[in-house]
Fold:
Amino acid sequence: MGNRAKQLMDQGKAVLFAFEEAIGYMCCPAVLDKDGVSAAVITAEMASFLATRNLSLSQQLKAVYDEYGFHITKASYFICHDPKVIQQLFDNLRNYDGKDTYPKSCGRFKVSGVRDLTTGYDSSQPDQKAILPTSKSSQMITFTFANGGVATMRTSGTEPKIKYYSELCAPPGNRYCHLQGKCCLEMLSMPNSYSLEV
Structure:
């Protein structure tokens, strides 16, 4: 992230913000790395600026949601020490309603695309072959929803974990976006069905 920011800056481009979901934020080009101190200073600067307009941080966040929509992300993991259970979980997702069928919906949310980087399948491509690199030695399935939501489940390369990520940028006024995150969690991870540790 910092190296890429430096490359862009060397090309005369302005880098305003970068992040890695699991590690942190780079919100100041003076420090080309994830840095909690600069993040705290910029948050304080923003709070001070908003105070001159009689606004709080939460009021400004609501104004952003009202104008641009509600953005929600959820990233977490389950612990599973049994490789057979992990394989069964992913096999069940790949054979959801019969051989080689993935889930078509998650509650009221319709699945519009599936990318499986373990098998090399991508329903969004004309030849149904994934463009991104594939690996049979690790599990990774991404579901795209008709409403723009995305959910990915993958195994960790270094720990006995099944990681999941879901995100949705809902249009202004959408009050159901939190339901998709909950629904994805139930469909993708199925912790009770597989006795996964939270």
